[in-house]
Give the backbone structure.
Amino acid sequence: MKVWVDPDRCRGHALCLTHAPDAFEFIDLEDRSVVIEGATESVPLAVFETAARNCPERAIVIEL
Ligand code: SF4
């Protein structure tokens, strides 16, 4: 599984951190989030799917 945040779509709502705090981290200086390194190994797919569903910008990309 590959998961990433499209930097062109992300608007920094940080809802992804609310739904999946172990999967995403916020880059303050750039006002956007990214997937934490190694999180795809430890965080279940369902958690990423919930975060993706709740991202208002549809910025979270999941590739199975
Ligand atoms: S919820 Fe979506 S748009 Fe907002 S910070 Fe997370 S990935 Fe970016």
Summary: Residues 2-63 form a domain with the Alpha-Beta Plaits fold (CATH 3.30.70.20).
